[in-house]
């Protein structure tokens, strides 16, 4: 069998002509790897004064803009100065400042500024709130393929989180996708602040696109009945931008690589039944995708729809029953989930079984959370489950061209990133058997 490097070369050279399907995945595997013990929760302190920007992170807004979000303890202007040369800031933009309260906690000033238009594949240097002590930089995503995603869920802020983030930073990428469970604040709001400081070196340099998990709900009956207060205030996503605005920060979609890839971020903890706002929006969103132009469609959701781990068994079933047909009809290529603190990759599935025109389902809820790993699996391993392992790690999805993407999962192996699972994913849009008019059931 050809090596991964050789396969990558073949794919790149043959981008303009039809490609043969990649080699079939290996037989079902349950890894016997034994993860070392858990590590303590980290607490990253703020080392500046009240006006020093902290917890800086960015997210993409449309094809040529970026949202910059940061916090200051004291009053400071919601302004971003930026340019393509270090120390020179010919452009500037102003935005909004908000705060929130949660029981006895009062947040700092949360600043939100959208900057642009920006050039693709370009490094921009910037500073926030006119602060001259800190210059940050980010690189905008490319306007065409290839495009490199990192996918990591259930991050938390432990020693394992820190090593996972080091592994992510060590290899270049264009955008990070996070399918829920960010800080594990779990009602204790200062943990949102320490999480923001922990991820800032990465989240301020590449766009982070996130969706909510169960640890973001933070609803306390009577005392604080409003859910997602901290999440909505701190991690605003482009739900009101693009061709298909959703109207909710809990679910949205966006395009990258000039429209070659469509990403759908679904909300496991927003209404999803037929007739709900999210269901109606998803139907509209997928109906607007032209697969003649969009090579890949991927979706993210927190609670996995397919899962052979004993943890959280069945928790995604109701959402799958409500929405799976929509994704299948749109020929979504892959669905990434978190929630289960382990890794698992399924074959293409639909309706509870293998289906060559269904999406590849992957659970990657193993970023480094403080709750530990989900080590118990159903035995025997289901035929559709291709690879599973209870270990921390992160995934990378490189959309190489209009027909092929390479998925790699890297185990966080005693502070080393080790490739433990890898597979080529062929775009369903390029598969004639999956695109007969009588085979599409979405609309």
UniProtKB/TrEMBL annotation:
The keyword Signal applies. It comes from the Eukaryota. The keyword Protein biosynthesis does not apply. Its EC number is 3.1.3.2. Gene3D superfamilies: 3.60.21.10, Purple acid phosphatase-like, N-terminal (2.60.40.380). Residues 53-140 form the Purple acid phosphatase N-terminal domain. PANTHER family: ACID PHOSPHATASE RELATED, PURPLE ACID PHOSPHATASE. Residues 358-421 form the Purple acid phosphatase C-terminal domain. It is an enzyme of class 3 (hydrolase). CDD domains: MPP_PAPs (cd00839). GO terms for molecular function: acid phosphatase activity; metal ion binding. Pfam families: Metallophos, Metallophos_C, Pur_ac_phosph_N. It catalyses: a phosphate monoester + H2O = an alcohol + phosphate. InterPro entries: Calcineurin-like_PHP, Metallo-depent_PP-like, MPP_PAP, PAPs-like, PAPs_C, PAPs_N, Purple_acid_Pase-like_N. It comes from Oryza sativa subsp. indica (Rice). Residues 147-343 form the Calcineurin-like phosphoesterase domain. The lineage of its organism: Eukaryota, Viridiplantae, Streptophyta, Embryophyta, Tracheophyta. This is Purple acid phosphatase.
């Amino acid at each position: 069998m050809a090596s991964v490097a050789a396969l990558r070369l073949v794919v790149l050279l043959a981008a303009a002509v039809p490609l043969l399907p990649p080699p079939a995945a290996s037989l079902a595997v349950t890894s016997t790897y034994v993860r070392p013990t858990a590590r303590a929760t980290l607490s990253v302190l703020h080392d500046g004064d009240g006006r020093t920007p902290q917890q800086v992170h960015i997210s993409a807004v449309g094809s040529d803009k970026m949202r910059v979000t940061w916090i200051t303890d004291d009053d400071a202007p919601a302004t971003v100065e930026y340019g393509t040369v270090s120390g020179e800031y010919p452009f500037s933009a102003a935005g909004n400042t908000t705060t929130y309260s949660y029981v006895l906690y009062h947040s700092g000033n949360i600043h939100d500024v959208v900057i642009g238009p920006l050039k693709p594949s370009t490094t921009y240097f910037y500073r926030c709130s006119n602060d001259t002590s800190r210059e940050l930089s980010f690189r905008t995503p490319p306007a065409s393929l290839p495009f490199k995603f990192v996918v990591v869920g259930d991050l938390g802020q432990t020693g394992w989180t820190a090593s996972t983030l080091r592994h992510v930073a060590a290899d270049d990428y264009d955008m990070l996708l996070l399918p829920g469970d960010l800080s594990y604040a779990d009602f204790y709001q200062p943990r949102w602040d320490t999480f923001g400081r922990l991820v800032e070196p990465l989240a301020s340099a590449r766009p982070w696109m996130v969706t909510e998990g169960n640890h973001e709900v933070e609803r306390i009956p009577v005392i604080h009945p409003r859910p997602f207060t901290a999440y909505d205030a701190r991690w605003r996503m482009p739900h009101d931008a693009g061709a298909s605005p959703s109207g909710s920060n809990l679910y949205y979609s966006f395009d990258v690589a000039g429209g070659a890839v469509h990403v759908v971020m679904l909300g496991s903890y927003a209404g999803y039944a037929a007739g709900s706002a999210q269901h109606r929006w998803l139907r509209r969103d997928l109906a607007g995708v032209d697969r003649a132009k969009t090579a890949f469609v991927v979706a993210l959701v927190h609670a996995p729809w397919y899962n052979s781990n004993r943890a959280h068994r069945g928790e995604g079933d109701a959402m799958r029953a409500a929405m799976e047909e929509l994704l299948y009809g749109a020929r979504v290529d892959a669905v990434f989930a978190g929630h289960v603190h382990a890794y698992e990759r399924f074959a293409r599935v639909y309706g509870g079984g293998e289906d060559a025109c269904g999406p590849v389902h992957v659970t990657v809820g193993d970023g480094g959370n403080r709750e530990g790993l989900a080590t118990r699996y159903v035995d025997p391993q289901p035929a559709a489950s291709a690879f599973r392992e209870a270990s921390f790690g992160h995934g990378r999805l490189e959309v190489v061209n209009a027909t092929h993407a390479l998925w790699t999962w890297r185990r966080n192996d005693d502070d080393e990133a080790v490739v433990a699972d890898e597979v080529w994913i062929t775009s369903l849009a390029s598969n004639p058997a999956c695109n007969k008019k009588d085979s599409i059931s979405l609309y």
